[in-house]
Amino acid sequence: MVQREGRLIRQGNQNPEVFIYRYITEGSFDSYSWQLLESKQKFISSFLEGTMDESHRSDSDIADTVLSYAEAKALAIGDSLIKTRVETANRLERLRIAQRQRRKRLLEMRDMERAVRMEIKKNEELILCTRNDINFYRTHRKRMSEAERRSFGEELLAALADNVGRPSERLFDWYQKFQVLLPAWMPAESPSIILIRQQGGARYTVRIKGASASGISRRIDQMLVRLPGALQRRKERLALLYRQLDEVRKELSVGNPYDEMTEKTAGELKEIDRRLHLSA
Asked: What digits encode the pLDDT tens for the residues 33-57?
């Protein structure tokens, strides 16, 4: 309909002023054509404004441009109910798209709820283990002489050099009654050890790169002394997880409001179709 204006505004038109008249004939195909233009304009406007999402357009929108024989006959005889039918059908299609998107979102939320609950359980166990490790270290900590530190460090450095690329974790020694484990598949450029008080407890990685023989034990002590800070961070993480779980559960409790709206609109369309067939 707008393309016709090209004959007026094209280059070479010598008329200084033109008038454009658009005639809309009741009971003709005009109403359906304008309906299509309206749908296209909404899509284009959303695209240009950057507000378009998946629910605004899909391949199924093509179905809105197809008329049945009964609808074409209704247009020809000027049945005003056809406009309501087209609007209702388009509204139903948009609702179905939104309904599918919401169902997908709910599935994602259920997966997220399970993942967050598992993460909460893991963090609660870590908090308990870390708290016990702090008390254990404070109770069993003992001073070491410089000779003891150097001897421990030299033996550990030799064990780490022999541990590069080994496929399994192994016990090296005990330090302050914590197990000192040599990690599996340890790269030569990043030597480290794993500290653990008991099997199934919290594991702490200590980087050894750059440490001297006597400085290794001090680095381990520093890590153990800083456990209260690690405990506080885990508590903060747990609080954040509980907030996330609460938000997910709130969204899940809303359910899918498009289910009821889609069912209601489908019923309206069915009734309109019944009336159209009767009038036809």
From this structure: 666 666 666 666 666 655 555 544 4
Give pLDDT tens digits for 66-95. Answer: 555 555 555 555 667 877 888 888 899 999
Interatomic CA distance for residues 173 and 194, integer angstroms: 11
Q: Which of 241, 251, 239 is nearest to 115 (CA)?
A: 241
- Locate the DSSP E strands across the chain: 170-175, 178-182, 192-196, 203-207
**Number of Cβ within a 10 Å radius of residue 75:** 19
- Number of domains forming the structure of the chain: 2
Cβ pair 156, 180 in contact under 8 A: yes
Report the relative pairing of strands 170-175 and 178-182 from DSSP bridges.
antiparallel
Residues 66 and 167 in one domain: no
Closest listed residue to residue 85, CA positions, set 69, 101, 74: 74
Looking at residue 6, its pLDDT comes to 64
Domain span at residue 33 reads: 17-111+257-279
Do residues 268 and 88 lie in contact, with contact meaning Cβ atoms separated by under 8 Å? yes
CA angle 258, 261, 264 (to 5 degrees): 145
State how far the Cα of 81 lies from the Cα of 83, in Å rounded to an integer.
Answer: 5
Asked whether the whole model's pTM tops 0.85, one would answer no
Q: Is residue 89 part of a domain?
A: yes
The position carrying tokens 């289910």 is 259
- Quick check: 159 and 170 in contact, CB under 8 A? no
Are residues 150 and 45 part of one domain? no
